[in-house]
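Worked example 2:
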Amino acid sequence: MSAHLAERPQTLRSADAQIVDAVVVGAGLGGIYQLYRLLQDGLKVRTFEAADGIGGVWYWNRYPGARVDSHFPFYQYWFSKELWDEGAWSERFPGQPEIERYLNHVVDKYDLRRHISLGTRVTAATYNEETGTWSVSTDKGGVVRARFVVFNTGGLSEPMVPPFPGHELFAGESYHTSRWPKAATDFSGKRVGVFGTGATGIQVIQTLAPIVAHLTVFQRTPQYAIAIRNPQIDKQDLARMRTSFEGLREKVHKSRGGFVYDSPSPPRFEDVPPDQREQRLESIWSDGNLRLWSESFADSGVNAEAAAFVSEFVRKKIRARIRDARVAAKLVPTDYYFGSRRVPLENGFYESFNRENVELVDLREEPVTSIDATGINTGTRHHDLDTIIYATGFDAGVGSINKIDIRGIGGASLRSLWQTSLSTTVGMQVHGFPNLFMTMAPFAPAAAICNVPVCVDQQCNWIADTIGFVREKGLKSIQPSAETEAAWMAHHNAVSEPTLLGQNRNSWYRRKGPDGASRELLAYMGGIPTYRAACEKMRSSGYEGFEFS
C-alpha cells in the first residue's frame, strides 16, 4: 500500500510546556471560531492541530472534485459583518481550494496563527479533581495544563480503515479521500478503482471518469443524489449577500437545518392535491440544491407515503440519465427512503456510467474477497488496477475524540464509557468530565443534520458563555448531572428515533458497535430551533441541572 494512505503531517514545531486557560483541539471550521471567541473573552488559549495546515476537513479532503454541498452564501462564518463583506466567493458551491483559502484568511485576519501549534496531535487529556484542571499531552512530548478543554475535532474527520483483507499488499498507489496528499496526482491513462458511492465517492467518480483509462466503481449502497446547479457568483450576487447579512443571520439561526430558502414553508403531503405533487417536486428539483431533502413536504421525514412519493420521483430522475437499464437498476435505491440517508449532490455522476471506460461492480452481488499486489479480487474475477481510491467514510461523531485517551473523574475513560453506552448532554458535555466541551459530537444538530457554520457558531458561543459563567462565578468546574444527561438522551430518542431516518438502520447517522450491530442514532432530528431553545434554557437558568465545584 502506498504511504499516501497513512500519511502523517510533518512537524512544524513542538509546543512549549505551559499553563493556559483553555486548550482547543482542532483548527478546522469550529476550532478556528472557538479560538477566536475565547481570545475575545480574554482567555489565554492554545490550539493544537494534527495537520500541518489550517482547515480541518478542508485541509485533508483535497481529493479531485471536492466541494461543499451547502449553497452560497450560507457556508461561511456569521460572527462578523466585516468578514462577511470580505467574502469573494466564485461559485454557488465552492470547491475545496476556495474554502481552504477562506479559512486561512480568517486565521490571518484575526492573528490566530500564533496561538496554533500545527503538526501536533493531542494524545491524552487527564482531569485533576483537586485543581479542577486538565493535563493535555501531545505526540511531541509536551504537556499543557488548562482549566478548560474544547474538542473541535469534527464529526467526520477520522477515516475508516479500508475493510478489505490484503489492502496493505497492493503495489500501486492507494489513497483515502480524507487523507489526500497535497502534491498533484495525475490519473490520466491509469486504471483506477474507487470504493464507495457516497457524497465523496460521487465527487471523485464524476471528476475522474473523463480522465482515466478505465474506472472501476465498487458500490455497496446506491444513493439518491440530486443534480447540482452550480453557477458562477457575480458582483451582483456578492452585493446582495453583503446587504442581507443581518436578516439572513437572524433567519438562518432559526431555520431547521441551517439554510434559508426563498420560499414559503412546505405544506403537508396530504394538503397538496395529488395532481400537483409532482409539479411541486419538479420546481424544487430545478433549484439544484438540498432543498428537496428538507422542504419537499413538511412531513416527508415522518410520513412513509410522502417519503415513498419523493423517493419514486428521484428514482425516475436517475433512471432517465442512464442508458443501460441493468446498470440503472444497480444505481437506483429501492430498499430505503429518500432522505433517510445522507443526500449527496452530483454533477454528471450518473452519466459517468454511460461511458465505455467506466464499470460498476455491485458489491452486494459480487463482494470483494481480497486485495493483492495487482488489484482487487471479487468472487468471480480479478480487477487489474494501477490506483485504488478509498471513499469509505469516517468513524462518524466519535472517531477523532476516541483516538485521544481522555480520563475524567476517578480516572474514568471516555472511550471505554462510550463503548458501553454513548451519551452526551446537548452534544457538548459529558457527565463525569468537568470543564470538557465538544462540538459536532453526537446528539446535536451539528453532528449530522445541519449546515456546519451555522451550528458550530451556536455551539462555540454556548461553550464560551458557559466557560464565562464558571469564571465569573468563581467556580472551579461545571458538568451536567447524570439526570440532566439522561433527560437529554430521552428527548433525543423521542424526537429522532420515530423519524424515517431513525428507522433506517444502515447509514453513518447510526453508530455501529464493534460487532457491526446498529447502535445509537447520532443525528438529532428535533431541528435547530428546538435545540437552541434547550441550550438557551440551560444558560438562562444559571445551568440548572448542572453540577459545580
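The chain has a mean pLDDT of 93. The CA atoms of residues 64 and 354 lie 20 Å apart.
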